[in-house]
Fold this protein.
Amino acid sequence: MSGDRIVGLIAIVAMLILVAPALARRQLPAGRLVRLALIWAVIFMAATAIVLLLGRGL
């Protein structure tokens, strides 16, 4: 894994961590909170997979 990918991964994790306090302040039910977290994780994984595939030239 190159340095650029490591930095990108750290940036994505940092963005997700910044969202956590906002969700905690809303005091959402645990089930909804888990569902939102899973949805965002899938979105980030899909975007990452697309970028990686396009970077390899499909």
